[in-house]
Design brief:
Blueprint: E1 6-10, E2 15-22, E3 27-30, E4 40-41, E5 44-46, E6 51-53, H1 55-59, E7 68-69, H2 83-89, E8 95-98, E9 104-110, E10 113-118, H3 119-138, E11 144-149, H4 155-167, E12 171-177, H5 178-190, E13 198-205, E14 210-218, E15 227-236, H6 241-260, H7 269-285, E16 291-300, E17 303-310, H8 311-317, H9 319-335, E18 345-349, H10 357-363
Parallel strand pairs: 1-11, 11-12, 13-18
Antiparallel strand pairs: 1-2, 2-3, 2-4, 5-6, 5-7, 8-9, 9-10, 13-14, 14-15, 16-17
Length: 367
């Protein structure tokens, strides 16, 4: 018997969210945080007097880049010597060192002392925040949770996620794959309105991971129970919205160097953090606009910076990543032994799934 409500937590690379099943409404309800937002930045910051989590941490990131930790999902369950960790470290303003058993340790200044944290400990702080959000909303203690992970998370990464939940004081009832959660959410909505079996491709591109699944959804009218069958899965635990930012940041750094001949901007973590935040905003604008501007007052050495990027240029900068997305879709279809014409619906999940939407539309024009 489960004691009290169980929550579902999407522990994302860049944002996390928490939901609960409301039997009175017969549906799942996504819980807003104290700012009224349905998603909370997966970000933890340390200062001389405080530890900040979520929106509060994100809001001071540009002023305190070396002590503001994000992207920790890219460290969890990995070794410091992993090539992906070494590549990410070049892009992060905060410091990561090798700890016991080659585990990556994040180094910060907290309350005027140097502190080291494992990825699980930082993730646990985010999970504890999600638990607090749920408890404030439901007005009761919450002990039980289901947490989602990317399909291609290995045993070490899954166990590290469970450990993070335990540190946060949660009983992790189940770890489920993100596209399976998406299929459930999609199927629960659709299942009562039809009695035909549908084949759905779930394309989930989040802040740091890509998951693709082909799922059969059978309404099971004859047995009064819907049946979900995952036919095939593909994905990349290191491909997401953050990766689409990197080429844009490099593009504008090159532009800044050409205009102002100041090469030391590359060693200015605050300037690079401001630029990354501006690129993130521009990327979001390009989901619905043909071009976006990047404007930053006093970016570096008191120089105001202004740049423009078009959707076409953005796609050109990220063409390798678009190709990777398509390769994973094609692999998933191949593993399911299906042709794209056999897909009834395509479900796009995650904020970053809007980025390659035009290419997905070309692949599945009738879905």
């Amino acid at each position: 018997c489960v004691d009290g409500p169980a929550i579902g937590i999407d522990l994302g690379t860049t944002y996390s969210c928490v939901a609960v099943w409301r039997s009175s409404h017969n549906r799942v309800e996504v819980i807003p945080n104290d700012q009224g937002n349905l998603t909370t930045p997966s970000c933890v910051a340390f200062t001389d007097s405080w530890r900040l989590i979520g929106d509060a941490a994100m809001n001071q990131a540009a002023m305190n880049p070396v002590n503001t930790i994000f992207d920790v999902k890219r460290l969890i369950g990995r070794h410091f010597s992993d090539s992906s960790v070494q590549a990410d470290m070049k892009l992060w303003p905060f410091k990561v060192i090798s700890g016991p058993s080659d585990r990556p340790m994040v180094v910060v200044q907290y309350k005027e002392e140097e502190k080291q944290f494992e990825a699980e400990q930082i993730s646990a702080m985010v999970l504890a925040k999600m638990r607090e959000i749920a408890e404030a909303y439901l007005d009761t203690d919450v002990k039980n949770a289901v947490i989602t992970v990317p399909v291609y998370f290995n045993d070490s990464q899954r166990q590290a996620t469970i450990d993070a939940g335990t540190i946060a004081g949660l009983n992790v009832m189940r770890i489920i794959n993100e596209p399976s959660a998406a299929a459930l959410a999609y199927g629960l909505d659709k299942i009562h309105s039809s009695d035909e079996v549908k084949t759905v491709l779930i394309f989930e591109l989040g802040g740091g991971t890509l998951d693709v699944s082909v799922v059969n959804i059978d309404p099971g009218v004859d047995i009064d129970m819907g049946v979900f069958e995952v036919k095939a899965m593909a994905g990349d635990t290191h491909l997401g919205g953050e990766d689409f930012n990197d080429p844009m940041v490099k593009h504008f750094v090159r532009e800044f160097l050409k205009k102002f001949k100041k090469t030391d901007i590359r060693n200015n973590p605050k300037a690079l953090r401001w630029l990354r935040a501006a690129c993130e905003k521009a990327k979001r604008m390009l989901s619905s606009a043909a071009q976006a501007t990047v404007e930053i007052n006093s970016l570096h050495d008191g120089i105001d910076f202004y740049g423009v990027i078009t959707r076409a240029r953005f796609e050109d900068l990220n063409m390798d990543l678009f190709r990777k997305c398509i390769e994973h879709v094609e692999k998933c279809l191949g593993d399911a032994k299906m042709d794209k014409s056999q897909i009834h619906d395509v479900v796009l999940v995650g904020g970053s799934s809007r980025i390659p939407k035009s290419i997905i539309n070309l692949l599945f024009p009738y879905s």
